[in-house]
């Protein structure tokens, strides 16, 4: 055993991507074991590795952790990305849950049928620009600090950056009316661990392509 966390998932973003981002933000090296076929998933299910019969699964500190939010909570706590006290953690949780809501919309866009894609994109843009981005713009404006909570780098910053970049993949000018979020994106992207993760050759996964969907469906269904 190398001692590095080992991530079990398909070679795609999905529900593992935020976990990759958090480990990278903390400067933690990790290994990945990719599910290539349905048999790979079945093997994990049959050998007792998946408590609830599903991935993501992360081997870390002698545990085989499942449930993506639980894994992210553990990593954020272990690597000091979860605020200094209960109030900061509550704020981080509040922001992260909102980010996850938008992230879910973004993640499912590629899976939409052709005749629903345009409407789905319109929903993403509407919720991003009228609900979520104005709220985070206001947070940054009100406290005038570099980070979302406690003027210290936290999982909320990591997860917001991930989602901002995903939103820009859907619509390149989606941040046009949000100057503070644009500055936030540039600032967090240039932090050493984030800059490394955003560079070519890292373990960050590219956007899902439609041609890859049938392979994923064969693994999970």
From TrEMBL:
Q: Which Pfam families match?
A: GST_C_3, GST_N
Which GO terms label this protein's molecular function in UniProt?
glutathione transferase activity
The GST C-terminal domain, residue ranges: 85-208
| First and last residue of the signal peptide | none
**What are the alphabetically sorted keywords of the record?**
Transferase
Which residue ranges does the record assign to the GST N-terminal domain?
3-83
Instruction: State if Ubl conjugation is listed as a keyword.
Output: no
GO biological process terms held by the UniProt record: glutathione metabolic process; xenobiotic metabolic process
EC number, as in UniProt: 2.5.1.18
Question: Which family does the record assign?
Answer: Belongs to the GST superfamily. Alpha family.
* PANTHER family (alphabetical): GLUTATHIONE S-TRANSFERASE, GLUTATHIONE S-TRANSFERASE A1
- Protein's UniProt name: glutathione transferase
């Amino acid at each position: 055993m190398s001692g590095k966390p080992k991530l079990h998932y398909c070679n795609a973003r999905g529900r593992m991507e935020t976990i990759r981002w958090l480990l990278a933000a903390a400067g933690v090296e990790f290994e990945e074991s990719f599910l290539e076929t349905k048999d790979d998933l079945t093997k994990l299910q049959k050998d007792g590795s998946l408590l609830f019969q599903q991935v993501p699964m992360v081997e870390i500190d002698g545990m085989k952790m499942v449930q993506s939010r639980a894994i992210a909570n553990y990593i954020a706590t272990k690597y000091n990305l979860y605020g200094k006290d209960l109030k900061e953690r509550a704020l981080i949780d509040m922001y992260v849950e909102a980010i996850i809501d938008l992230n879910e919309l973004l993640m499912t866009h590629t899976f939409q049928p052709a005749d629903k894609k345009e409407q789905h994109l319109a929903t993403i843009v509407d919720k991003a620009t009228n609900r979520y981005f104005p709220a985070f713009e206001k947070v940054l404006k009100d406290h005038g600090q570099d980070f979302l909570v406690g003027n210290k780098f936290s999982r909320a910053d990591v997860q917001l950056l991930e989602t901002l970049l995903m939103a820009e993949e859907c619509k390149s000018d989606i941040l046009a009316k949000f100057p503070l979020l644009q500055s936030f994106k540039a600032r967090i992207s240039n932090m050493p661990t984030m800059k490394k993760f955003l560079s070519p050759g890292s373990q960050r996964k590219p956007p899902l392509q439609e041609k890859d969907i049938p392979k994923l469906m064969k693994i999970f269904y």
